[in-house]
Write a structure and sequence with these properties.
Elements: H1 9-19, H2 34-59, H3 67-81, H4 86-97, H5 105-115, H6 123-133, H7 137-150, H8 158-176, E1 181-185, E2 195-200, E3 206-211, E4 228-235, E5 238-239, E6 243-244, E7 255-260, E8 266-273, E9 276-285, E10 288-289, E11 293-294, E12 305-311, E13 317-323, E14 332-340, E15 345-346, E16 350-351, E17 361-366, E18 372-377, E19 387-394, E20 397-398, E21 402-403, E22 414-419, E23 425-430, E24 440-446, E25 485-494, E26 504-509, E27 514-520, E28 527-533, E29 536-543, E30 550-556, E31 563-571, E32 579-581, H9 599-611, E33 616-622, H10 629-649, E34 657-661, H11 674-680, E35 682-689
Parallel strand pairs: 25-31, 33-34
Antiparallel strand pairs: 1-24, 2-3, 3-4, 4-5, 4-6, 7-8, 8-9, 9-10, 9-11, 12-13, 13-14, 14-15, 14-16, 17-18, 18-19, 19-20, 19-21, 22-23, 23-24, 25-28, 26-27, 26-29, 29-30, 32-35, 33-35
Length: 690
């Protein structure tokens, strides 16, 4: 049987010589320290109990829990007493291989092989894994084949061997043909413990993550700490030290962030309650996060464990991973859609068919374009451990996931994925070698398509989304959609005191008059963030109690480049003398005919007049300085009167309003530019009485 472990006679000769160096845990070898031997053998016996449980769980694609860590603690006692035993080095290697620091397994497994290459039937399997981590894929394939040749049991462990062999073959191609991206560790976010589950705001300025770093709670049975959820803000290009979220979102158990909503006001997370893992939701109120509440029973069921949930871009569905006792494939990806946003009843969860594998699938992340989904999976197409894949929605169906490629994916675990709105940057978690310890947070910068050589250096930081790698085992590549988005963010404040104001914001498609989104700014900070797709003209109305409403207009053409609008909105108290520009009132060119796109703005003005019946206002028309001053005054007067007539038709008393045309006499900015002239062409109202 020994011959299956050797590839050449020379290697056999060296191995036989080194075999004699193996020191057994026998009394004959430790005549002068019987007490030490007893402690070591007792530790091995205790460690073996945990080791067996862990291996059995791993075999059926279930979590081994703390069992490998508990076994490791005992084995290290024995290894300290006798460092030259092949079997104990092998078992320590296995424990490390199944930890969040797998690279630590390499030295122990290689030492076990040197001491006794026949110390365990699974040694070649794990030696293959050690070579795989070192990116020595040919050596890994030889070791896996040697294990397979000698492992003749009729069970399904062969699927693990086949999986690793497939990973090595794919990895050779992937490493040899890296995609155009940088992957950088972010030391200020990471700790010597596990830092996972990054979720980024759409503007890329705030990040939420999970860590089991020391948190002041009671340590667990292996001396570690439970997972808590933290946040950090990007300041001058550097991330601040993560701080635990304020509020009651963190408990004394494991709380794992899953997905931050696109506007940053809600968060999905999962936690274990009495042995049951379910998905919860917490909301940001002011500066604190609310006590998480479990999702609808169709998602957080009582019959299975659920984790790693993600919001859909339209707000109708939740995507997540579920583990049923009836399955042997670990966690599968599923989704459930709401029947009504008012009642928030969800339909029975359905499988994401082509997106699942025979191994654990999830986390999952839905890009806000609604057509791109990123999946972490150990399944077919992985180049080692968890890899990140991308699937595209085609004709209403999700395509077969495609590996994002190297260096995003490595032979280590690379999972979780959170993208900025423009898709140029993403954040992942990985336990690749060279980090701070355990899993770390990494930033991915996509370079975009290769450019033709030129004499000057190219700025590769101005990048696009990566092209998925090609592979013979994957049915073609999925070209990720590149939709344009404008991230509209800002703060609502009092125009006089400059203090934050909680306000309601309404986004309207001016062409159809349809309200696209309504939300409330943060009560403590006044902050808000939303993304807008290209190809539309938007009206943005901001309302707060006792304040004049504020309006903005954005025209985002089709194919517009991704950009960020950061707006400080000053709200004015409803006091005599307050003025506001009605930016979403439109007239035909050179005429006083109100266009249909003005209806939403006019309705808001009607509502204000009805809500505050004591208000008396002046509607004023203004032009730029182009053309005759007399004609400008006449046109502006006619337009002001047109607005007044519209308000009268909606039931507003005529004696509460006056119309005045000022022509170009009251510009708000210079008329020397087209943008300035556009700002000067406006309709305003001023409060004359209240």
């Amino acid at each position: 049987m020994k011959k299956i472990f050797f590839i050449a006679s020379a290697f056999l000769f060296v191995s036989i010589i080194s075999f004699g160096q193996n020191v057994e845990f026998k009394a004959a070898n430790f005549k002068d320290d019987k007490e030490g031997l007893k402690k070591a053998t007792d530790a091995i016996k205790k460690g073996d109990e945990f080791f067996t449980i862990a291996n059995e769980a791993l075999f059926v694609v279930q979590s081994p829990g703390f069992n490998y860590q508990l076994a490791l603690k005992e084995y290290l006692i024995a290894q300290k007493f006798n460092p030259n035993n092949a079997e104990i080095n092998f078992k320590i290697g296995v424990c490390h291989a199944n930890s969040t620091d797998p690279f630590k397994c390499i030295e122990f497994l290689k030492k076990a092989q040197t001491l006794d290459p026949a110390c365990d039937p699974f040694l070649n399997y794990y030696i293959g894994y050690a070579f795989q981590l070192e990116e020595k894929f040919d050596d890994a394939l030889k070791s896996y084949q040697a294990f397979e040749d000698g492992y003749k049991k009729a069970d399904n462990f062969s699927k693990f061997v086949a999986q690793h062999k497939g990973e090595c073959k794919l990895a050779k191609t992937a490493v040899g043909n890296p995609i155009r991206a940088w992957v950088d560790n972010i030391p200020e976010l990471n700790s010597p413990n596990d830092d996972i589950a990054p979720s980024i705001s759409t503007d890329g300025a705030e990040i939420v993550l999970t860590s089991n770093r020391s948190n002041g709670h009671t340590a667990n049975i292996v001396g570690g700490y439970d997972n808590d959820i933290y946040s950090s803000t990007l300041r001058d290009g550097k991330w601040a030290k993560p701080q635990a979220l304020k509020g009651t979102v963190n408990s004394t158990g494991d709380d794992v962030s899953n997905n931050l909503s696109y506007d940053g006001t809600k968060m999905l997370l999962h936690r274990d309650v009495n042995g049951q893992t379910d998905i919860f939701e917490s909301k940001l109120v002011g500066l604190t996060w609310t006590d998480p509440t479990p999702l609808h029973f169709q998602i957080s069921s009582t019959k299975a464990n659920e984790r790693y949930a993600s919001y859909s871009s339209d707000g109708w569905s939740i995507f997540f991973a579920r583990d049923n006792d009836s399955r042997e494939n670990g966690y599968d990806l599923m989704y459930s859609a709401m029947q009504s946003k008012i009642q928030k009843d969800y339909m029975a969860a359905a499988m994401l068919g082509t997106c699942n594998s025979k191994f654990d699938d999830g986390p999952v992340y839905l890009h806000l374009d609604g057509e791109t989904m990123y999946i972490a999976s150990q399944g077919t197409g992985s180049i080692g451990g968890y890899d990140i894949f991308v699937s595209e929605k085609v004709a209403g169906q999700w395509s077969k996931p495609v590996n994002l490629g190297y260096p995003i994916n490595t032979p280590y675990d690379d999972f979780f994925f959170a993208s900025t709105a423009n898709g140029k940057f993403a954040y992942i978690s990985s336990n690749r070698a060279g980090g701070s310890g355990g899993y770390d947070i990494y930033k991915v910068t996509f370079w975009g398509p290769e450019k033709a050589p030129i004499t000057d250096m190219e700025d590769y930081l101005l990048a696009s989304r990566a092209q998925p790698m090609k592979d013979a085992q994957v049915e073609g590549t999925v070209e990720v959609n590149k939709k344009s988005f404008t991230v509209f963010k800002g703060i609502t404040i009092d125009a006089i005191t400059k203090k934050p104001v909680e306000a309601s914001i309404e986004i309207t498609d001016n062409t159809t008059g349809k309200v696209i989104e309504t939300f409330v700014t943060n009560s403590a900070t006044g902050k808000f963030i939303i993304t807008l797709a290209s190809g539309k003209n938007y009206g943005i109305a901001v309302k707060a109690e006792k304040y004049l409403f504020h309006s903005e207009n954005f025209d985002i053409p089709i194919g517009a480049a991704d950009n960020l609008v950061n707006k400080e909105i000053e709200l004015k108290n409803i006091a005599i003398g307050s003025k506001i520009a009605l930016r979403n009132i439109f007239f035909d060119i050179g005429k006083a005919t109100l266009r249909a796109e003005s209806n939403a703005e006019l309705e808001r003005l009607v509502k204000l007049m009805k809500d505050v019946p004591s208000l008396k206002i002046e509607i004023s028309g203004h032009t730029d300085n182009t053309g005759s001053a007399t004609l400008n005054e006449t046109l502006s007067q006619s337009r002001a009167e047109a607005v007044v007539k519209h308000l009268i038709s909606k039931g507003i008393a005529e004696n509460r309003m006056s119309a005045k045309g000022y022509g170009s006499s009251k510009p708000v900015t210079s008329n020397n530019t087209e943008d300035g002239r556009q700002q000067n062409r406006r309709t305003e109202f001023e409060i004359k009485g209240n």
